[in-house]
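Re: folding output
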Amino acid sequence: MIGVPMSSGKLFRMLEALEEQCPGISTLQKVLLLTDGSVTTLLEAAFGERVLVRTVVQEVVPADREQAERLGIGVGDPVNHRVVNLVGARTERVFAHAVSFTPLDRLAPGARDDLLAADIPIGVILRRHRLETRREIAEVGAVRAGGAAAALFGLAEDAPLLCRRYTIVHEGVPLIWIQEQFSPAMFGRERVACAASALHPAAGTVSVVVEAPSRLHLGLIDLNGGLGRVDGGLGITLADPCGELEAVRSEGIVVTGAGPELAARVEDAAGRMLRHLGVAGGVEIRVRRSIPPHIGLGSGTQCALATGTAVARLYGRPLPARKVARVVGRGGTSGIGTAAFEHGGFLMDGGHSFGPCGEKTGFSPSAASRGVPPAPVTARLPFPEDWRIVLASPRRGHLVGGAEEVDIFREHCPVPLEEVRECCHEVVMRLLPGVAGHDLALFADAVNALQGLGFKRVELALQDPLVRELVRDLVESGAACAGLSSFGPTVYAVTDGDPDEIVRAARACLGEEGGDVLVTRGRNYGAVY
């Protein structure tokens, strides 16, 4: 961290040092870190939506020595400890995470009541009670995200977070000490640059960074086609793992930071978008992070969408996610990957028209459904923030893709109509109400039932026996539900309690052959760029 008071003449040296820690810091980021005004107001202006305060912790505690020194109070004096997230009302993105300590005896009764009532921005409280204050910034810098913050912002644990610490001063006396953290990916330079290039396309941008989320695919609803429509998907956008890439202009197409298979995917998507745009230049893409491939988390779609989006924005021609998906050839069976990239949250899509004059004339996976548009989103719900998701990806699982995936669709479709009807019943009467009503038991009953219905039954039956053991063991260890994501082999389990026992069960089941176990959450916003 770099400790510099706001009034210091060292301001420019502070910013230079911060840019060395976190290259490419944008004007918006600098304003957020150094503002003497309301962060909430700035976020609302920058992102065009109302910002809500979601309280995580609100408690009165005795001040420790460090807090006492910061606030000029005695050790043991009562202070209000408040931890909040600043969240978009429409997108439910977490824009900022803030921790504050306030000596209660320094607030007038009305202001104290507002603070303890929670979910009111501090800036609003100060204005409401006409408290003339200033912010004395003590530290500005970058810190390692770590476990909790990484899950909150959907970052890797070693990713940087922008952080500032300051004191709000009233009549020369410290009133509140605050620490605020922001994700660099959400406020990057490319946001400003792309907005400028949309007005002046010839100007282009120096670079574009796109972060794309992974997703769970809970299942395809209708692979019978008896009603003239097929497919229909169910999915959950995940906070972790994520993919991230950076694009800059070049003469040809160059991909770095990726193995041969991923590099080929990126190159293919970049080439498709460049040809669609009809531009003469090329692009150099550096893969910063990637979603593990062929394990059921949607890596192919997210990679293609992130690449296509980056190229289009790099050349000042931003396109909506559904258009990008058509250009790069994704979304032809399930619309969940495209919707996760665009919106995030819990998602259901309505499939495609089916038959001689329909969008599809046969049963096929997305990768083999070129030219078919992504399915329309028919339901999007915020996934409950307190539901934890355990991912278990065995190394011994069966990886399905390419020609084998096409053959599976041909061999096992159409699925029995009665199973499709039962699947629809579970989705409409238990799965969707469970998410909407924050009823984990109802949601879990549907997930567990879907493992034995329709095409999900086929996907699970084709997996290694170890995968089916994982589903069983995770439920027996206390998970409300467990299921296979897409073709797998990743198994997911959902709980609203402590996931430690579920993690232990997953590792025990994976045994000596091993695999990866990760605890994550739903992500109620899409890609960041």
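--- second protein (sequence, then structure) ---
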Amino acid sequence: MTGIYGAIASAGDWGLKHGCAVAYTDKGTGTGFDDLQNGLVDTLRGDVTTIAAAGANAQFVAPLSPEERAQYNAAFANRFAFKHAFSRQNPERDWGTDVLESIRFAFYVLNQKFPGANISKRNTVVIASSVSNGGGASLRAIEQDHEGLIDGAAVSEPNVNPKNFRPFTIAQGGSPPFTAQPTELIDYVTFQNAFEGCAVGSQTNAPLFFLAPPSAARCAALHADGLLASTTADAQAAEAQQKLNAFGFLPEQNFTEPLLWFAYVPQAIVVTYSNAYGEFKPTDNLCGISFAATDPTSNAVVPLAAAGEAVLFGASNGIPPTGGINLVNNSTGTEDRSSTPDQDLAAALCFRGLATGVDAGTGQTVAPADQSAHVRNGNRQVLATGDLHGVPAIIVEGRADDILPPNFVDRAYVGLNAQTEGGKSQLRYYEVTNANHLDDIAQFPGFDTTLIPLMNYYIEAMNLMYAHLRNGDALPPSQVVHTVPRGGTPGAAAPITLANVPPIQSNPGANAIVYSGFVLGIPQ
């Protein structure tokens, strides 16, 4: 997760209910902020105070000299810096190490609490587990675990970037085959961020479509830059959607695009992770984007209200827009997406260039090239090896995940693991239909009738791994789990029953997922 608090309701909830000790780590991505204008930060307890008063208890202080801070504030008033983006430590590089440190720390604390018990790896079952970022950190920890601390893992929708592997074919039912090749988060999310604002125009029947109406100006600007060939708004939207699906985003993910675009999900990830990978400071002004509160009417930068700042620790997820802090176009001093008619396509293409090293329109090397080199080098530092050393592991993923898409993440990792470990692999992959990255959107009309909770299968995966490690129960083979949407009237979906969420099968039959001969077979 972004920080330890997201893991409390997932791995923590399961662990405590099963009488386990639970160790958390925030992986350097928590909600720490620095109010650059006023020199205010949040402490480890969540209190807001001055940098001097917080001292070593500050969650995060932007790595700026007093002179740099003053000059930046004079040019860009009322800006904020967040730990994940601006720590200049590329925290994702150490996610696996952080998890291993938390396990060692847990053993230390347990032995302090129970003197003489000699609690250690020799007499304790250790399961690495979490969702999203935490899931990726768990897998990376096993890859780096040379002490044998971890006995198994059960993760859901992990944010993991598979390293270079031999391209293989993904054959999903009767869909056209897709060639899987290394495609890191910063690559696919910058592509998504460039085209999704236009593509939503093709999803007029999607739930909550009205929240993110099509941007004809974004489509027209993509056409003017030579990135779309079509000449009408409808055709451009359809072409943008086709480009996303041809790139590797699954058609099953399309209907969530309007809501995710409305919520700035691709844009938020692009800005934060680009700055984190490149180890930039706020003063580097990457692609002209900063963080600040904005007026809801004029969209201009304003100071964050004191009441909002006081609860930012709890209200923020550390990746703006969040907690009243938005993304800002520094050239206009206004909220970024509304700052230009084309939703600031220039910034989106700037970040795309940083990820690829070339201009999206001209194919020429981006300038400044050193910024792109920093981003791409930082991305290389976070790549997963796929070598789980024979440790049993379960990955659960929703096929409709438009944030960490299966083709680039889970399916790619399964292929990398198969190429790396071969027959000694104990990795299981359960792909769940009608499930996405964010269970909470199932509360909204239209999503309530079409989506089921992926968390149900995360809990089942934990139960399966626990039974495997404690009792030697066999792990079910990799498989597609076909769920049944609740149906009913949008906004008043039928009550969920066990029939909607069938269990993972010990004998999946035709639903088995198999990697063989550089082909990953995914039943429809």
